[in-house]
Amino acid sequence: MDDAGRGTMPKPATAARMYDYFLGGIHNFPADQAAARELIARYPFVPVVARANRAFLGRAVRYLVDAGVRQFLDIGSGIPTGGNVHEIAQRMAPDSRVVYVDIDPVAVSESMDILAGNDLATAIRGDLCASVSLLDHPGVRRLLDLNQPVGLLLVAVLHFVPDDAQAYGAVAELMGRLAPGSYLVASHTATETFIPIARQSAPRDDVYQRETATPGTVRTRAEVERFFAGLDLVDPGVTWAHEWRPDPGGPVPEGPQGGGVWVGVGRKGA
Fold first, then answer.
1. In this predicted structure, what is the pLDDT of residue 16?
2. ∠ CA(59), CA(262), CA(14), 5° rounding?
3. Number of Cβ within a 10 Å radius of residue 204
4. Which residues of the chain, if any, have pLDDT below 70?
5. Which residue from 222, 156, 225 is spatially nearest to 192, judged by alpha carbons?
6. For the segment 178-232, what is each residue's pLDDT rounded down to a tens digit?
7. Which CATH number is 45-267 given?
């Protein structure tokens, strides 16, 4: 999408709009496209990984609806593109309620445009690291009953919280506030995929840290499993995105380093 066509000054890259570019969306600016192309030059499989991650989100939402969940809190929801949470959930259960949260004001604005006329879904600006105040936001309180199970979606967002204490603390605080029967759905870039490739080339600074306000990181499978501490992991546990209850013909990243992102779904017991 052209900045000039919007009548605005050029905008810096953001992680949300880079992800939109990876998915083939149109809600991105030249700075996002340039940063995304630089990342693809280093890791050519990134667009396939992004599509596999997005497909996992859809399968996980369907699983939660089948399990009886009718409330969803999608933090780090990004720019709207095909297969949004409200589209999937409300198609299966029209009474499903969805709150999208993102730190990028453009993502929130675009989401609100799409949600116009949908009284059971909204978008708010918020920060995962401000987890306590986030749950007290009027937009969350208006739509979600925290005394009933909620599907907490942290898909492709935790790797933008490089500080371990903040990342694990935010997840623990959020799940601690949610009712029994709630679920955590999470995905995270994999150390096992990205570090071996990074070692094959000259060291470079992080594209996200240099081009956006959201530096990125990677974590191992064991480190991602820690986010589900105290929860009952849904089979097959923490695995590659394309291996979590796959649909036939879904995107499959190739290469010796695996599938790019670790994913999992966990349920909070009584």
1. 82
2. 90
3. 10
4. 1-11, 196-215, 255-257
5. 222
6. 999 999 999 999 999 888 665 545 444 455 445 455 667 999 999 999 999 999 9
7. 3.40.50.150
